[in-house]
Amino acid sequence: MVGESEVLVLSVIGSVLKIIGIILLVLLGILLAAVLLILFVPLRYEAELTGRYEQEEEDAPQILQYTVSARVSWLLRLVSVRFRADETSHELKIRICGVLLSGRKKKKKRKQEGKTKKQEAPVLQRTEAKTEETPVSREPASAPGKEVPALPEKSESRADSEPDGERFRRLVRTVKGFFQKLVRTVRSFLERFRSLFRNIRGRLKRLMKAAGEIRSFLGDERNQEAIRFLLQEGKKMLKTVLPRKCSGTVSFSMEDPAATGKVLIALGFAYPVLQDRIRIVPLFENRTCAEGNLSLKGRIRAFSLLIIILRVWFDKRVKAFLKRGQKLREHMG
Q1: What is the largest CA-CA distance in the chain?
Q2: 8-state DSSP, 298
Q3: SS3 state of residue 144
């Protein structure tokens, strides 16, 4: 028969194991809840930009004023990051559950010409004092009574003492050496040009061959299908990341009204992207200026990004496309 002490030990062990199991289940539940929160709770962001730039004349000083404010929040703003900047300072604040972790305002440093000039003045004074204190070196005068040694007279030129036959032979050797050196230089230049032409021709052949292989690789129906799939998934990813709301107004003018019209025509190609969300107002004034404001809002859901990544990762067409691309790369060297 089992004694009372053994029954007590078994009950204690069972209660301990039960407590450990409950703690593990609680930790597992907390971990699962955290994973679900990260996957399904979106990360929200918003930003606002206001700016003004103006320059009336070429020699006139430029006027630049801007204000940027952005905020990223998650889980009903329990975690938030704020950023604000202008032409004089910038500020960053990070809060978790309302507790400010970091938030310092930094002013941008500006160089002051007066201080630099005051600092340079003592340095210039010290350098001038040093130059005055240094003694000027003088050459020692010749002692009286000592004779200065006379310089040797120039000897007669060697050319005058040489006979005419030796002078002619030396001239022939000089001319012969010059032409030999010229022939060697021309020959080395032609060899270098020939080798350069061979290298360029070889590179062009390799490029033409590589271009043909790439064209055939991209012309394959299987590769085209994989590329279309990747473009489709990439478009979905951009749609998930890009802001959902975007609005603003931008007014600008160039010094020449014709240049303003050209810029307006170029911006017309971006109308399918801008549509009616961003309003562009040309001013057609005889000065260079720009002024506007822009605001955007969006969200990023990790679950949507994860689904797109897994769909691309496990797709057989993409795997085969990457293998064929690796073989083409190895074949091309």
Answers
A1: 141
A2: E
A3: coil
